[in-house]
Amino acid sequence: MTAAADPRPPQQPPGADRVAEASAELRALAGRLIRRLRHAARADVTDSQAGVLSRLERHGPATIVALARAEMVRPQSMGATLAALEELGLVERGAHPTDRRQVVMSLTEDGRARLTKLRRLREGWLYDAITTKLTPDEQAVLVEAVGLLDRIVGDEPPEA
């Protein structure tokens, strides 16, 4: 009988059940952590707006279409998000260097300041939670685990 025709499930390595359970728990935990971080910031910008501010900070000015592709939304949705951010004074329009039909959006100084404030609120809550709820030994384990999680996640997926 060939391996492809074998009806038995493939042999699982030792501990595979524990890894599968940990994977499910980590996925659920990631969702709860994100909700707690959002709550900690209680921001006047939405998560999608904060994501656009962050992308503009990391990658610099971009067109609406490029931002929509990167954030995996329709250009119309990105236009609405950017209009709200522009109204708040967090982004500004500029001329495209080679195509006068396009607009380039960039982060304003107020946008940078808002992004910094959001990060401080979220990271402050997380720092307080780690230092008050975990022992020094547990904190050391967590610090090590962050490196492992970073290896799992890797770099951002390539932009479409």
Automatic annotation (TrEMBL):
Coiled-coil residue windows: none
Domain HTH marR-type residue range list: 12-151
Keywords: DNA-binding, Transcription, Transcription regulation
Region (Disordered): 1-20
Transmembrane stretches, start-end: none
Pfam family, one: MarR_2
InterPro entries: HTH-type_Bedaq_tolerance (IPR052526), HTH_MarR-typ (IPR000835), Tscrpt_reg_MarR-type_CS (IPR023187), WH-like_DNA-bd_sf (IPR036388), WH_DNA-bd_sf (IPR036390)
Taxonomy, superkingdom: Bacteria
Organism (species): Mangrovactinospora gilvigrisea
GO molecular function, one term: DNA-binding transcription factor activity
The protein's name: HTH marR-type domain-containing protein
